[in-house]
Each structure stands twice: as C-alpha cells, then as structure tokens.
C-alpha cells in the first residue's frame, strides 16, 4: 500500500512540476521538498532502515546525476531538486533510469526542434568541427583542450 502511495506521489509531483515548468519556467521548492520528505517517510515506514537508506541514496543520486549539467548551464536548479525528490521516492536506480530517459527524450525533442527550424544540418556541421578541434587537442589559445582530449587523461579521470 505504501509503495502505491509513493507511485501516486511521484505522478502528482511530476504533473505539477510539468505544468509549472511549462507555464512559468519554474519548479517550486514547495512541491519538491515535501515530495522528497514524503519519499523518505514512506520508504522508511514501508521497509524500515533499508527504506531510509534507499531514499537517502536515491535523493543524493538524483542530485549528483544532474549537478554537472546544472553547473554547465544545461538545467535549472529545480530540475536537480526534482530528480532528487524522484530518487527519494523511488530509489537511486530509478533516479538513474529517469535521468537517462530525460536525456534521451530531451535529445529527441532537440533534434525535432532543429528539424522544425531547418537548422539540423548546420548544427551537426558545427558539432563535427567542435569535436574535431577537441580531438586534435586544439583550443582557443593553442593547447587548452589537449589534456582533456588525450585518452590516457580521460581514462585516468573516469576511474
């Protein structure tokens, strides 16, 4: 029964955030913070200490997954907090799957917008040039990207 309440809570939260984000470009703390708290309470009541652990790790996973895109300007803080609330309600794996689905759907929407605006080909050309420059290690001032572009450094950073 409590698992169904978590599912219902996530559905309501997502719908509210969808509407406010589309209308006002805002995801309100007064929606996501209570949702995160509800996730922690519901999972703890349903599963005890393991449920509490699941909610906390889900909250942290949701926030951490979207923190880099937020820092780079690709997402708003509300998106980060919303994924944290989703993680608190459904756990870290669900937060990861949600983030992946969000990225895929966002990518498809971006391609459709570029097609609609007749800018897909020019965008792909610019992307190819940018990737080529990065791959050769060239940057605006000579070698600013060379450390990032080297596979050994990338593999070191990924470990």
Task: Describe the protein in words.
This protein has 159 residues and is an all-alpha fold. It has 2 domains: 2-117, no CATH class; 119-159, no CATH class. Helices cover 84% and strands 0% of the residues. The chain contains 8 helices and no strands. It has helices at 2-24, 29-47, 49-71, 77-90, 92-116, 120-136, 146-149, 151-158. Helix 3 runs antiparallel to helix 4 (77-90). The longest helix is centred in the middle third of the chain and has 25 residues, at 92-116. Residues 142-159 have low confidence and may be disordered. Belongs to the peptidase A24 family. It comes from Syntrophaceticus schinkii.
Question: What descriptors fit this protein?
Answer:
single chain, 159 residues, mainly alpha, 2 domains, 84% helix, 0% strand, elongated, disordered C terminus, aspartic-type endopeptidase activity, transmembrane helix, Peptidase A24A prepilin type IV, transmembrane
Distance between the termini: 41 Å
As a percent range, the share of strand residues is under 5%
- Helix vs. strand class: mainly alpha
Please give the domain count. Answer: 2
Number of helices: 8
Q: Describe the main β-sheet briefly.
A: none
Low-confidence stretches: 142-159
Rounded average pLDDT: 87
Proportion of residues in helical segments = over 70%
Give helix and strand order, one letter per element, not per position. Answer: HHHHHHHH
The number of E-state strands comes to 0
Quaternary state of this entry equals: single chain
Spatial extent as radius of gyration: 20 Å
Write down the overall geometry.
Answer: elongated
Organism: Syntrophaceticus schinkii
Family: Belongs to the peptidase A24 family.
Keywords: Membrane, Transmembrane, Transmembrane helix
InterPro entries: Prepilin_IV_endopep_pep, Prepilin_peptidase/N-MTase
């Amino acid at each position: 029964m409590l698992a169904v309440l978590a599912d219902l809570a996530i559905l309501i939260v997502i719908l509210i955030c969808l509407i406010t984000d589309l209308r006002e470009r805002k995801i309100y703390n007064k929606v996501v913070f209570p949702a995160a708290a509800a996730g922690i309470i519901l999972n703890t009541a349903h599963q005890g200490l393991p449920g509490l652990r699941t909610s906390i790790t889900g909250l942290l996973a949701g926030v951490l997954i979207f923190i880099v895109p937020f820092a780079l300007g690709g997402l708003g803080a509300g998106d980060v907090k919303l994924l944290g609330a989703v993680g608190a309600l459904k756990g870290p794996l669900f937060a990861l799957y949600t983030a992946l689905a969000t990225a895929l759907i966002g990518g498809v929407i971006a391609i459709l917008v570029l097609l609609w605006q007749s800018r897909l080909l020019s965008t792909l050309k610019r992307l190819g040039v940018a990737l080529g420059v990065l791959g050769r290690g060239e940057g605006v001032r000579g070698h600013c990207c060379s450390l990032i572009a080297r596979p050994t450094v990338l593999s070191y950073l990924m470990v």
